[in-house]
Specification:
With 80 residues, this protein is α+β, with helices and mostly antiparallel strands. The chain has two helices and three strands; from the N terminus they run E-H-H-E-E. The longest helix is centred in the middle third of the chain and has 12 residues.
């Protein structure tokens, strides 16, 4: 997505990510392989994704939305 985004363009994510600076609970760790078969990953870390792709983007907003921060609204902007 970032590759095709214009400079100063924005992407808004509303998805489930592990809450910042925390690890998955034991029940979520056990359910993760089962749920991934259904096509989603409840253990994905936005911070890990961002660290691998942060050369030309900045995070403008990162707001926990629901389920104790599991769902987050994240706005990123391409800077160059």
């Amino acid at each position: 997505m970032v590759r095709v985004l214009q400079t100063d363009g924005k992407i808004i994510f509303f998805d489930k990510f592990t809450p910042q600076n925390s690890k998955l609970s034991l029940p979520k760790m056990l359910l993760r392989p089962i749920i991934s078969v259904l096509g989603t990953d409840i253990g994905r870390s936005f911070e890990e994704i961002y660290l691998n792709n942060n050369k030309n983007i900045i995070v403008e907003e990162d707001t926990p939305i629901m389920l104790n921060g599991m769902y987050r609204k994240i706005v990123i902007r391409k800077i160059t």
